[in-house]
Description:
By secondary structure, the protein is an alpha/beta fold. It contains 22 helices and twelve strands. Strand 9, helix 18 (about 505-520) and strand 10 (about 525-530) form a beta-alpha-beta unit.
Amino acid sequence: MSHLRHLARFVRPYWRRSLAALALLTAVVVMDLAIPRLVERIIDEGITPHDQAVVLRTSLIMLGISVLSTAFAVGNNLLSVQVGESVARDLREALFRKIQSFSFGDLDRLRTGQLLVRLTSDTSAFQRLTQITLRIGTRAPLLILGSLILMISTSRSLALTMLPLLFITSAIIVFFVSKTEPLFRLAQQKLDRLNTILQENIAGVQVVKAFVRADFEAEKFEAANEDYAANSIRVMQFMTNMAPALTIFVNLGVVAVLWAGGLRAMRGVLTVGQIVAFTNYLLTTMTPLVLMSMLSNVWAGGIASARRVAEVLQTVPEVQDLPDAPRLPAGALGRLAFENVSFHYNDDHAEPVLRGVDLAVQPGETIAILGATGAGKSTLANLVPRFYDASTGRVLVDGIDLRHVRQDSLLALIGVVPQETILFSGTVRDNIRYGAPQTSEAEVVAAATAAQAHDFILEMPQGYDSQVEARGANLSGGQKQRLAIARALVTRPRILILDDSTSSVDVETETRIQDALAALPFPHTTLVVAQRISTVLRADKIVVLDKGRVAAVGTHRELMQSSSIYREIYDSQLGEGARLEEAS
């Protein structure tokens, strides 16, 4: 139960309210346990001797206890709900912050659909577990313990005859709960799969429609949905068998009390009131057991979800700062170096994506990385901001190993335009200054102008105050890419990484962007990942990657002479005629 202990820290800040809820609950239990004793008094001291005053006084006491018990129960419920909701809120925030700390490698393993389930469904299950524990879950054991004590005080011999029945009932509950928890964990895994398919289809709806695969995706979702439903049905069917089994033992207990108690009453050992009280205490003992069986699905589900939530919270990010790691020194030049860098994703035995890369980039240079799909271009670029760490070798900035400095100081020097453009709902202005919220209006406009976005922004209904829909749904691919470039430029990065960031704009616009980047008023080293030859022609140095290795390095003219791979890419995009024309 280490996962429950790990999550218990989210309850500790609310220990006063939790303690108050448990105190009110204890008071309610004491009052509930007093009722059978008062019934015994009414029967033995009031009804049997025909003493109406005793019946009236005791009835009024019972009424007062019932009113007070109700008030305390309401207070317990209110406090339990407050604690449960507060714990769920804090847990969601902790999960969100933990996910934000994950490296790309962690997110590759824990898919989006899985994380969504753990942030929502699993958190809600633990919230219900907390509330139930502070309400019924704690009340039931207290009632059972109190009833056992009072049964023994009423008739020790009769209580001893009931103990085997109670042990059997308790064993049945433990058996069902122990078997149910793995079933609920499996159900949550099925829900993970269901949410992953849903998330993929929502994100990729255009592809699904374009390839007329809606029926295929519907069948895939239906299969996952059926699997989840079938597993949930198995869990519920298993759980529904418990209540009838326990009810049988409750009835057997009542029959045993009436038979054995009746014999003792006829011999004058017990009074009628004691038999009634004993029967009530037996029901008070057995009823919570039945109730616990009905709530065992909540406990089993909560325990399974707690395990899954704790798994996320206990995940150690692949990329993290060393203890007492210093910041990068002020005034960084932006010199980059890759020393014998190799990299593979997740599995240590997987095929390396990068192999023995050695590369030096001088401050202020524009370096283009070119190669076929899968050559490792984006992976190489992702090592610079430490989205991943190199499996072997070192990546250096100004001669300092990236793993030896704080990530925030490194990222403060870097502007990244990722391959997949992501915009956020809000205004155009807010998206551009996302990485530098205090940026002035003039700097926002300057960055947008350099990214060739200023003109189309002014054509929007409210200019820079125009709303951008979630993921930039109301913008074209080229517009989104230009806003992403502006977002990177506004931070005045010392190292600028452009990962195929102009693939959706025309060549003329791309040329203007390149001219604007070359004329930026601050020094910067630029790393350009590209598929198009037109993107790399003007780079100071072009790096050709082939199957994860550096196949060639040089300027366009040098590579046209020395690299057959570069010439093949050039000819495939621009045609051999363009090469002959250029040579002439």
